[in-house]
Amino acid sequence: MRREPPRALADYAPLFFPALMLIVFFVVPFSIMIAVSFFKRNPAGFYTPDFVFDNYARFLTTFFGSVLGFSLLLAILVAVCCVVIAFPFTYLLTKRSRAVQTVWLVGLLSVLSLSEVIIGFAWSTLFSRTAGITNLFVAIGLMKEPVALLPSFWAVLTGMVYQALPYTILVLYPALVRLDPTLLEAARTLGASPVRAFFNVVTPALRNTIVATLIMVFVFALGSYLLPQILGRPSNWTLSVLITDQAIYQSNMPFAAAMAVFLVLISLALVGLTLLAGRKESAL
Amino acid sequence: MNVLRRLYFVLVALFLAAPLIVVAGVSVNQKQELTFPPKGFSLAWYGQIFNDPEWRLALIHSVTLAICSAAIAVAIALPLAWFLWRRIAPWANIFQVLGLAPFILPPVITALGFLSFWATVGLFGQFYTAIISHAIFFVTLPLVTLSLGFASIDRSLVEAASTMGADDRTVLKTVVLPLILPYLVSGFAFAFVLSLNEYIVAYMTIGFTTETLPIKIFNALRYGYTPTMAAVSIFFVTVAALVFGAIAYFGDIRRLLGAMSSDS
């Protein structure tokens, strides 16, 4: 059956339910959130309708500026760490047998699906004094007595890299698995060592993929809302933590909404950049 | 070279497994304390997930939420993916973008959108609001797997069926649905596992009235750690590994994740 444009009204029928659900439960909530960001806070309830820019004006404080700066820097750091670890790894993985790949993919998906709550709990246990990794160091004589490694910035960074690494590998996987094998063969025939072929042929060929992945992991890391709370000090809190905190504990929905709108704008701009990078790739 | 490569795989595996190994160790402690290596051995904490009324209730909430929301997500994604495959209607792609958006945006934002919505319509706190919210949040997964499934159908098969006189409905029932069934099942399974683990959307919709397992773990974190939490975490990893393992066993997980069709 060839694809054909819908002719009768009945041809549109299958679209009805999905369109209704997505509009009512995604477009409308999103619009309400944007509206709420201009509302006034109501300590007794959720908000009072209004039209003020107060919530956005609060962005101009130094506190907010430093949280924003920290969030962006942390997300960049996570993205760079993940891609540096994941790119060679994924490349090597695609060279393994299909069975080995399948086992790894199942494992990666299992870790990826873990709740942030569980990742936070697992790492706080691993970094704790009583059950932590330092007990192992004591056992092999590297340290005198076990210490707690959290709360600290490094704990937050480790937790977030852990959370984003499976995602990074799975984003890189399709591009690397589809990489034209003749490219590598040519390099090898011309006498390049495997390592040199990887750095001088594979990496430049996938330059745009790498940039797109960096941006996607960056957006993914921006969304981390629990790990900075569980593993870090309040000074390690990110914009996402602040949004959760304002919405739930300070019950200041309008301010939370304003921050969320701002975060959407950043994310959208970056996703747009990703698409642009992807387009250039396919044009090559 | 080979040694270096192996070492690299081992290090990545160790990094990914280390927290889970420690949590697994902690979960079998005999007494209610978090020590590693564990002191004594007891599976009592796993029993507590099913025996303790609070944990059991949270488990029931989580499973109900995951099954219902995954079913609704598939119900939204299937007709949409079918329509996009069957018809030429470029403007309908907007719904595909809408279906992908909730998953690409930072989850806090989607969660806050749902919170504002349910609070505004006055249904805040009802259990079914979380089901609908999760269905929308995870609709991306069945949408992606089903789009892949439809794309893999050889159109000449469908053409043959309609030349032989099968109408649209018959073609759908006898040719299309059997072919995309594996993709439908994996879409459901992905949405199910992620919904089971999801925290922030569930928390912002029903967190004040109902506890799902991730919410219960987070609430329990504040009152101190117990081995039960470790047991629940291991339970989650096991469920996820079993589900994805089953998908890999019965289907082609490499293809689902973007590798080209297995042998062609």
In short:
The complex is a heterodimer of chains A (284) and B (264). Chain A is mainly α.
CA-atom Rg of chain B in angstroms? 22 Å
CATH superfamily of the domain at 62-112 and 164-283 in chain A: MetI-like
Overall radius of gyration of chain A: 24 Å
How many H/I helices of chain B? 13
Q: Kindly state the percentage of residues in helix of chain A.
A: over 70%
Number of H/I helices of chain A:
13
Question: How would you describe what is shown here?
Answer:
The complex is a heterodimer of chains A (284) and B (264). With 284 residues, chain A is mostly helical. Chain A has a domain at 62-112 and 164-283: MetI-like (MetI-like fold, Orthogonal Bundle). Chain A is built from 13 helices and 2 strands, in the order H-E-E-H-H-H-H-H-H-H-H-H-H-H-H. In chain A, helix 5 packs across helix 7 and helix 7 (153-177) runs antiparallel to helix 10. Chain A starts with 12 loop residues before the first helix and ends with a helix. The model of chain A has no long low-confidence stretch (mean pLDDT 83). Chain B is an all-alpha fold and 264 residues long. Chain B has a domain at 54-224: MetI-like fold. Helix content of chain B is 76%, strand content 0%. Chain B is built from 13 helices and no strands. In chain B, helix 3 packs parallel to helix 7 and helix 9 packs antiparallel against helix 12 (227-250). Chain B starts with a helix and ends in an 8-residue tail after the last helix. The chains are: A mainly alpha (284), B mainly alpha (264).
